[in-house]
């Protein structure tokens, strides 16, 4: 069982600190979502994990060793940073073959991973003609060549169609199910909600949250209830008295949190208040994420 | 099964697989797979021979009158060197090949994948250097010998004095042309690594092999040593069979050029190891 241990990782480009004293662990057997707004330092962190960028301070250990010290890296870590990073006039099979050969992996591994990613049919085609979805599969195929215990994907669903997104999600889950440590970055909370077991949230290079998905849901996923009544003011007072938090919504509606719709309905019946609408609102993890990272977004659009 | 090359591996798999190291030959083989699997490689090589032999044929098509002018001006007649003038353009095409071995990976972003797969970066660059130089050496020698034989045949057909490969100094000049082109390939890989972009590296190479030689007359005397080892100038003197008063020891000049190329290559290795990818 191999894990990634990031310890006090810092990267400075000149005066700018892109990654700031970041520490977290990517455990085996689960998908760790690496979340942050654009420019939060996710890609830089991933590059430091695999030795493409040198940290200013701090260390990364993969199974206790530095990436540069791995003797057959593809058998330990599979990385997909950018699916577009292939030479367009090279055939898919040759692209994978060069990688396999460079780590002394047997040739049949190329066919194995082509089959696992459903690319057998286009193995002899030049990559330049591939759709984004196919390139993404090719990139994933490359990560699996050495059957590694650790997998790292940078924004793997970016730009994919719903079918491709679903395939990648399922794939991540199955990789984690096989006991591998999977680190997936994204800037979309909704994406992580459906894939990740664990969340590492960063903003402006700093750690904002390091928590399990279920805990994050419990803490941030509390829903609200939209209530409409002819007498909003008096009912709002009664709701508040019953322990709920009430905000004014649009068109004299009430947004209630801290009580379920069932409890609100009972309260209305007890006081003989007529309700014209009682709608539970789905808690938005996206909102929770925005709330969490609002202070660390690089460029904020001014409210209209 | 016990193969002679296998490292000592305990029968029980208590030792993890990563205890084995990947031999350098694998890195080399991988670079060869990358190199041969691009169409541009073969187009560039085809272009090298088409342009190289084409220039040889063109430049010697009127060798008869050329010979008369040379003799009238009491200049030495060097049929070997005349048949090798294609090296001037060939070095640019070979250079493109060497540059692309590195810069095509930067252009596509593939370099990240390559470095992740081979984190010992000096190995990766060494493999690239070796593949590019080996191909340049083979293609360069083939082109130089091809040009020599085509050229001498053309001279013979015009009844102009020509050289045979067994004449004194001829073989070393022709083979020297191939070596010169190999050295240019080394330089190109180094430039590609240092500059990371095809356009920048190619412009630098053109500056080195064409522009600076064109301006060589402007060099002050204390920079004469640079002229002596510069490509297309002193570095290319080995392609001449008639002694050149400017470069009395052409192989020393070529040796100097090789040392300079090695210095640039060393800088490329240092930078490639240190720089973030």
TrEMBL record, chain A:
InterPro entries: AAA+_ATPase, ABC_transporter-like_ATP-bd, ABC_transporter-like_CS, P-loop_NTPase. SUPFAM superfamilies: P-loop containing nucleoside triphosphate hydrolases. The keyword Transport applies. Keywords: ATP-binding, Nucleotide-binding, Transport. It holds the Pfam family ABC_tran. PROSITE patterns: ABC_TRANSPORTER_1, ABC_TRANSPORTER_2. GO terms for molecular function: ATP binding; ATP hydrolysis activity. The keyword Iron does not apply. Residues 4-229 form the ABC transporter domain. Signal peptide: none annotated. Gene3D superfamilies: P-loop containing nucleotide triphosphate hydrolases. It comes from the Bacteria. Belongs to the ABC transporter superfamily. This is ABC-2 type transport system ATP-binding protein. It comes from Haloactinopolyspora alba. The lineage of its organism: Bacteria, Bacillati, Actinomycetota, Actinomycetes, Jiangellales.
From TrEMBL, chain B:
The keyword Electron transport does not apply. Keywords: Membrane, Transmembrane, Transmembrane helix. Signal peptide: none annotated. It comes from the Bacteria. The chain crosses the membrane at residues 42-64, 84-103, 124-150, 170-195, 202-223, 251-272. The keyword Phosphoprotein does not apply. This is ABC-2 family transporter.
